[in-house]
Sequence to fold (314 residues):
Amino acid sequence: MERRNKPSAIPVEPSVPTPTADISSDNSSITGRLPTGETVTILLHGATVTSWKSASGAEHLWLSEKAILDGSKPVRGGIPLVFPVFGPPPKSGHPTSSLSQHGFARSSRWEYLGKSTSESKGSTGADDSIQLDFGLGTSEASKSWPYQFGLQYSVTLSAASLRTNLVVRNEGKEGFDFQCLLHTYLRVKDISGVSVKGLNAPFTEKAVSPPSTNAASAEPITIGKEVDRVYTSVPKDSTITVAEGTAPRFEITRENLDDVVVWNPWIEKSAGMGDFAPKDGYKTMLCVEAGVVKDWQKLEAGETFEGGQIIKAF
Ligand code: BG6
Fold:
């Protein structure tokens, strides 16, 4: 018999999907995921972003098939973090002289500091971004650089963009000089159709010997041979657009990172790198690397430097 005055069901709030951060079972990487399906993966080794995918699963970053991910070598691909020296260090007499190429940050194991989600609500009603924070301090790996420092690296995944932001603190009693760079390997379909705009700044071409100095040009850059250029003092508000044919593929904006390296190793250099695969992988990658590399950034005791990039993918 149907009961009279049957208690009505307690209304249940529909559960709101939230971004998640999962640590891999071997404790080597963290994957952030948005409810809409976008993901980012960061290897604790180097705090290297190794993957950034759209909701459809399309990968935006290039990662070598032979990249070494066990911590014994810097990662060939993704976004390795260059600090405190760019390229080979000065031969002698500089505090970075005994460091290896591109410094120790990309070769050190970082600590995962946790996640935070944004207050803004996306179309799903869920938080629409997730920030993952990583830290590195004075350690075994940094011992040949004689300073006390703290690095915080934040990777923020939003529906259409990835932000990577570095904070450098001088925690010692004396000033130090450093360089830093976000060594971003962008994945492209076919390098022959790629053009780069927004780098209207003087540059040094390191792919020729001796390196050549070149005047600024508003012409889009195309890649048909080895390119290893350091663009300096790129106008702060200039958006760098990487297009495939006429369609924009990436847009990069920078904060406090005034130099930009454009690198494609092409045929011979790729062949010479044991961890670069496939050998014609240079056709599907282009490094566009924002940083401070032409000169040294001075940081006095107790001071903090912050610099970062936002990459928008289309
Ligand atoms: C680029 C440099 O940033 O990194 C190149 O401009 C260098 O000169 C390239 O070859 C790769 O460096 P590595 O140490 O990862 O082989």
